[in-house]
Each structure stands twice: as structure tokens, then as C-alpha cells.
């Protein structure tokens, strides 16, 4: 996809300006848009994260849906390899249970979505997503505990809906759709999530398999290659480098390349 010239310098940014710039980037009305973001990357923004959320909602309109990661990595075992002991047991008791209002460390924009009275949120203890709009319920309902970013997950549903992926001031190391793409590769990397969970009124530690972390090994490369292949539109909005891509061609491209890269690494 074509490159778009940087936006004029505007200080500070407001909802109307952000909406115009996002529309210029190509965010379409009626779309499902998965947004990864860094508010600070924009520079000064009038009303902060709320302006970004408002601009996104104006772009997609009433028929569209804004989706954000609401991950809660704090709901995890601080000593995953330990058998127990006073210090370990105490630290594990202090780990919070996941609940619908639990804040996410994913940034100001996701927490602004979480503060909206109409938003819906998935129920995964570590990898929930939050959504505002017409497809919010379908996307957030019944997220599996195993492979939270894989088949039958919200990412699988968004892919089926032809969602867009929007990176606002962040790189592909924050692009969760790449975890979904990797989960579709048979030789994908693996990890085990461990989190507290209540079953029949008893707090237990549950282990669930999922696709492994990338830690910057392949995902930035995949983003650069997808860009070179013309799958990404880019634009500077304020001081933030922003990228927009359609999930279907992007995931299909990433799945094939990850299969090659992971096979070579064996």
C-alpha cells in the first residue's frame, strides 16, 4: 500500500484533527479495527486518550467496532517454576484474580476504552480484549483459556470479519495478530500460561498452553517485509508513526513467512 506524507505539525492534537488524519490513513467507516497504541508517541493530545478513542469511534461510525488489547499479565504466577514455600505462597496469594474492571497495563487508550460504559470485555485472565461497537459482543464472547490468541479466539473472529489492524505509535512487536498468525503454523513456538482461577468457589492455579512469545525475534522483520510487499499504509500523525493493514492479507502473508522462518530455525 502507498505511503502517505506526514501530517502538518499541529500542537496540540484534538479529536477532530485525529479523526481527519485517521480517515486519511484509510480507517474506513463500518470497519472492525484492532488498535495497538502509545498515547505518548503522538505528543500533546487535547483530553488525552479519550480524544484518540473518540476519533476512532467517529471514523468507524455506529456500524463499526473499535477493539483494544486489555491484557493483564499481572494475573500470573510470580514463581512459575517453584514448588512452594512461605515466600512463594505469600506472593501467589497476592496475585489478583481477573475481573471485568481490572485495569490493563497496555496503555492509556485501552484503559480509556475500559472506562466506557458501553464497552464489552473478554473473560481470559491474562489475554482479554475490550471492544466498543456493533460487533463487540460477537468478538469478546467465549474466549478460550487455551490458545487465547489462536483458533476460536477473538482474533480468529476478527480475522473472519475482515478486521483492520491499526498501530498508533508502536511497532509490530506490539501487533497481537502476529501471535494469531503464528498459532496457525504447525511448528509454532509454545508457552504455558499460569494464572489463578476460581473453580467451584475454590481458588486454583490453572495452566493453559498458548503460542509462545516472540521477544522481537521475527515480528519486526515480518512487519518490514509486509510493508515492502505493499500490505501496509503508513502516516505520521503528530509525532506518531502510524500503520494500517487489512488483517486477512497480512495474516496470510505472516503465516507463510513464519512457517519458513520457524522451519529454518529448527
Itemize the secondary structure elements and their pairings:
Blueprint: H1 15-25, E1 32-37, H2 49-60, E2 65-69, H3 86-93, H4 108-114, E3 120-121, E4 129-133, H5 136-140, H6 154-160, E5 164-168, H7 177-183, E6 190-199, E7 202-211, H8 219-228, E8 233-237, E9 240-246, H9 247-264
How would you describe this structure to a colleague?
This protein has 9 helices and 9 strands. The protein is of the alpha+beta class and 266 residues long. The chain has a 7-stranded mixed β-sheet. A two-stranded antiparallel sheet has the order 6-7. Strand 8 and strand 9 (240-246) form a beta hairpin. It is globular, with a radius of gyration of 19 Å. The mean pLDDT is 95.
Number of domains: 1
Widest sheet: strand ordering: 3-4-2-1-5-9-8
Q: What is the ordering of alpha helices and beta strands?
A: HEHEHHEEHHEHEEHEEH
* Shape annotation: globular
Structural class: alpha+beta
Rg from alpha-carbon coordinates: 19 Å
Helix content: 25-40%
Tally of strands: 9
Contiguous helical run count: 9
Main beta sheet: strand number and arrangement? 7 strands, mixed
Share in β-strands: 15-25%
Low-confidence stretches: none
Tell me the distance between the termini. 33 Å
- Please state the average pLDDT score: 95
Amino acid at each position: 500500500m502507498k505511503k502517505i506524507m506526514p501530517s502538518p505539525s499541529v500542537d496540540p492534537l484534538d479529536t477532530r484533527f485525529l479523526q481527519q488524519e485517521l480517515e486519511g490513513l484509510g480507517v474506513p467507516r463500518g470497519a472492525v479495527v484492532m488498535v495497538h497504541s502509545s498515547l505518548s508517541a503522538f505528543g500533546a493530545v487535547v483530553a488525552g486518550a479519550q480524544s484518540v478513542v473518540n476519533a476512532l469511534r467517529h471514523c468507524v461510525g455506529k456500524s463499526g467496532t473499535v477493539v483494544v488489547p486489555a491484557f493483564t499479565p499481572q494475573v500470573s504466577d510470580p514463581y512459575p517454576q517453584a514448588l512452594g514455600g512461605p515466600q512463594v505462597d505469600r506472593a501467589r496469594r497476592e496475585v489478583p484474580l481477573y475481573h471485568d474492571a481490572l485495569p490493563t497495563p497496555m496503555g492509556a487508550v485501552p484503559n480509556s476504552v475500559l472506562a466506557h460504559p458501553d464497552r464489552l470485555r473478554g473473560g481470559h485472565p491474562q489475554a482479554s480484549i475490550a471492544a466498543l461497537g456493533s460487533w463487540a459482543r460477537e468478538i469478546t464472547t467465549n474466549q478460550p483459556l487455551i490458545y487465547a490468541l489462536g483458533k476460536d479466539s477473538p482474533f480468529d473472529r476478527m480475522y473472519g470479519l475482515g478486521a483492520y489492524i491499526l498501530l498508533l505509535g508502536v511497532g509490530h512487536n506490539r501487533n497481537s495478530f502476529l501471535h494469531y498468525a503464528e498459532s496457525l503454523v504447525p511448528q509454532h513456538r509454545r508457552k504455558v500460561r499460569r494464572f489463578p482461577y476460581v473453580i467451584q468457589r475454590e481458588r486454583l492455579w490453572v495452566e493453559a498452553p498458548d503460542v509462545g512469545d516472540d521477544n522481537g525475534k521475527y515480528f519486526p522483520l515480518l512487519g518490514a517485509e509486509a510493508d515492502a510487499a505493499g500490505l501496509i499504509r503508513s502516516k505520521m500523525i503528530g509525532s506518531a508513526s502510524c500503520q494500517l493493514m487489512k488483517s486477512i492479507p497480512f495474516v496470510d502473508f505472516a503465516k507463510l513467512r513464519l512457517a519458513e522462518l520457524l522451519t529454518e530455525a529448527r
